[in-house]
Lysine--tRNA ligase
Amino acid sequence: MAEEKALNDQMRARRQKMQALQNDLQIDPFGHRFDRDSLAADLHEKFDDKSQEELEATPVKVIIAGRMVAKRGAGKVIFADIRDRSGQIQIYARRDDLGDNYPIIKRADLGDFIGIEGTMMKTEAGELTVLVSHLTHLSKALRPMPDKFHGISDVETRYRKRYLDLIANKESFVRFQQRSKIISAIRAYMEKQDFMEVETPILQTQAGGAAARPFVTHHNALDIDMYMRIATELYLKRLIVGGMERVYEIGRIFRNEGMDPKHNPEFTSLESYAAYWDFHDVMDETEGIFKAAAAAVHPSLKLNYQGTDIDLSKPFARKHMVDLIKDRTGVDFWPEMTVEEARKLADDHKVKYEEYWTVGHIINEFFEQFVEETLKEPTFVYGHPVEVSPLAKKNADDPRFTDRFELFIMGSEYANAFTELNDPIDQRARFEAQAAERDNGNDEAEGIDEDFLEALEYGMPPTGGLGIGIDRLVMLLTDTNTIRDVILFPTMRP
């Protein structure tokens, strides 16, 4: 109660200062357009290595603007820190220089936005500073800023009020700047590889392209239920049929699932498809994407994630799933076997399975239980069973497995890719098998997409496809252990 009263007192005082701006100084508390010619980071880059004498000998005038985040002094002299999108810089205001303009800084509260005209200088302590010649009030903050040491440490507040997190926590602000750089680097790499960026529907009449539960909504004009997309895959493949050959999309995906440090119901994915490629080509593409993304924030391609050093400059390892299981457990799934034999192996190793599972499901479960978390260095795991890969092409030498891979780093999956299934007859059979799984209790299994099957019947060239979770990639490259710290506004309970 005392804290709430103190907050109300501060808010009341700020409103009184707002009225004083209007009544005493005839200043609009919420300001107007302002032209600046410099950012804080640019000034540091240009002048940090200049001496006090050099700056005095050749005066440089600048115009900056930003939020006041610290204020020191009183009476005739005030120092303050001004923060813009690039960083922050100190200003030095003297009443003798500013005259009637001085009350703007004297009455300003932390959080207020101010425009500053002045001259570059250095203090006796050697700190780069703008000596103020004129001030412009730009916007009043009616609430006190969060205390950077205490007020924004609450996790709930950081996610629900991201704007406060960005104001108070520099590392959070920088992380989202890095996210933007990472995505820009990926786009630049894809363009260099002659991929075309496209957009596909978010609202769909049938959700497909992944094993996931969709969000359902209703279109009033058509009076039909529609689904938020769970993947971009099936529409991007339609474009391959249409002759675009190399396409990709970076966009939002929606899956009606639980939330944990690696999952948010709304997230960002990259999917790409290239005609005439197979999954080996896509491995090369994926490695290129990861190295380009990493270089945007780690030019050496060497980083540390949660205390473990990772070197992305080396070639990524490539291993078959069955070989990895055998190396880790001694269980050999290469010989053909019945479901009963696979179930016995599962029972012997305390691997649980569902009644509808076949041998391929059990192989995949062995991998997830015994191998996945052990893969620390970048590793392409290929050869997934056909039962867990309904959209991937069967391997020509062993049709029990598919030409699919996943990329694992630090025990987590970062990419999923295949030589795409382009046989409409086989694809229909896979869809039907998925539909049967759904009837048997797997509510994440896909249905039969007749329109996509029709598109395939017009002919799709051999194609390599890729999916990457952008949020997880950003987590890796910014040393973040929860997806909520790399999504500006994560999903929250009201």
The chain has a mean pLDDT of 94. The CA atoms of residues 264 and 491 lie 7 Å apart.
